[in-house]
Amino acid sequence: MSNSTKTISLVDLPFELVLKISSYLRFADVWYLGTCSKLYRQLAYQILFHDYNINLIKPFLINPLDNLIHAAVAFLSRHCYSSTTNNINQSILNSVSNRLAKEIYYRTPESPDFGSSLEFLLDKSFITLFSHIFCD
Q1: Which residues of 20-43 are buried (b: 16+ CB within 10 A; e: fewer)?
Q2: Cβ neighbours of residue 18 under 8 Å, at least 6 residues apart?
Q3: If 126 and its partner were Cys, which of 28, 80, 97, 120 is the partner (CB 3.0–4.6 Å)?
Q4: What distance separates the 2 farthest-apart alpha carbons in the chain?
Q5: Three-class SS of residue 133?
Q6: Which residues 6+ apart lie within 8 Å of 55 measured at CB?
Q7: pTM above 0.85, yes or no
Q8: Residues in domain F-box (predicted)?
Q9: Residue 111: what are its φ and ψ, rounded to 5°?
Q10: Taking the CA of residue 45 as centre, how many other CA atoms within 13 Å lie in the half-sphere pointing to its CB?
């Protein structure tokens, strides 16, 4: 007789059980689960839709920055805020906001009116946005 055992993964579980497990996870944990494989990405998108009402499966409006912004929020929630000291790491916050500002800047139409003022405005907007996300 052979003792072959089948490994059961998270995607094999009933979705109700997955939702119960996901209730113990933070947004960042669910987001990073979706980076493991295609199967886990689909599962993570279903969890995000159910728990956070974020539709990445078939979005109503296709926005090329959606994944980038959600990934930035997941990264910040995991690496930027320290719950033990109740502090926000400003250097990480500035770095992520600068990266998002550059990505948006590269995706905007070129115009002499925008210039560096757009990058400055986006940078300050993202710092304010993410500060409110973590402080409020």
Answers
A1: eebeeeebbebbbbbeeeeebeeb
A2: 10, 43, 47
A3: 97
A4: 76
A5: helix
A6: 49
A7: no
A8: 7-52
A9: -155, 140
A10: 14
Q: What's the per-residue H, E or C state across 23-80?
A: CCCCHHHHHHHCCCCHHHHHHHHHHHHHHHCCCCCCCCCCCCCHHHHHHHHHHHHHHC
Residue with tokens 């960042």: 28
Report the alpha-carbon distance of residue 25 to residue 17 in Å, rounded.
13
Contacts by residues 14-19 (CB-CB < 8 Å, ≥ 24 positions apart): 15/46, 18/43, 18/47, 19/47, 19/50, 19/51
CB distance 43 to 10 below 8 Å? yes
Assigned token pair, 82: 């320290």
Position 103: which residue type?
E
Kindly indicate the confidence band of residue 89, based on its pLDDT and cuts at 50, 70 and 90: confident
**pLDDT tens digit string along 38-86?**
999 999 999 989 998 888 877 665 566 677 778 888 888 888 877 777 7
